[in-house]
């Protein structure tokens, strides 16, 4: 579980070692715990979350980081929007409709399924195919 959460072998081993130390320090009170396995898992999960928080670099927001978008950036955004719109028009109508519902309207797969009458799995496949086609076109 620690390796799955931390994705680093050394960090995972350190987290498990820290778990053992905490359990050792609580050894006099462990007999009061009804589900020791669940308690240990929860404790390990919390230790991993603490490690993740400590490892994340803190970014300080400064005033000089905030700037108005330049004319070039605005032009690039408009060109990107135009290119995506043109590529969307090349998709099959059903894929275009499903992708718009998913991406632009932010609907869940189940909501799209109720609107279109298609299965959730079919919708996932159609969205995936549409995204792949857009990547090819762009």
Describe the structure.
Helix content is 72%, strand content 0%. With 138 residues, the protein is mostly helical. The protein has 2 domains: 2-55, no CATH class; 90-138, Arc Repressor Mutant, subunit A (Orthogonal Bundle). Helix 6 (109-116) packs across helix 7. The longest helix is centred in the N-terminal third of the chain and has 20 residues, at 36-55. The chain starts with a helix and ends with a helix.
Q: Give the percentage of residues in beta strands.
A: under 5%
Q: Which runs of at least 5 residues are low in confidence (pLDDT < 50)? A: none
Global Rg? 25 Å
Order of helices and strands: HHHHHHH
Structural class: mainly alpha
Question: How many separate helices?
Answer: 7
Q: Tell me the total number of β-strands.
A: 0
Could you say how many structural domains there are in total? 2
Biggest sheet layout: none
Helix content: over 70%
Q: What would the average pLDDT be, to the nearest integer?
A: 85
Throw out a few tags for this protein:
0% strand, 138 residues, Arc Repressor Mutant, subunit A, 72% helix, 2 domains, mainly alpha
Describe the secondary-structure layout:
Blueprint: H1 2-6, H2 9-25, H3 36-55, H4 71-89, H5 93-104, H6 109-116, H7 120-137
Helix pairs in contact: 2-3, 5-7, 6-7
Summarize it.
The protein has 138 residues and is mainly α.
């Amino acid at each position: 579980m620690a390796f799955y959460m931390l994705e680093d072998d050394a960090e995972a081993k350190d987290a498990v070692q820290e778990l053992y130390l905490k359990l050792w320090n609580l050894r006099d009170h462990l007999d009061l715990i009804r589900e020791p396995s669940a308690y240990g898992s929860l404790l390990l999960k919390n230790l991993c979350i603490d490690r993740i928080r400590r490892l994340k670099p803190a970014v300080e927001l400064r005033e000089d980081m905030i700037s108005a978008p330049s004319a070039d950036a605005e032009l690039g955004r408009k060109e990107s929007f135009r290119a995506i719109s043109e590529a969307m028009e090349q998709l099959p109508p059903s894929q275009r409709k499903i992708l718009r519902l998913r991406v632009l309207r932010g609907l869940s797969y189940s909501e799209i399924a109720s609107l279109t009458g298609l299965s959730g799995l079919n919708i996932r496949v159609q969205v995936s195919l549409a995204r792949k086609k857009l990547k090819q076109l762009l």
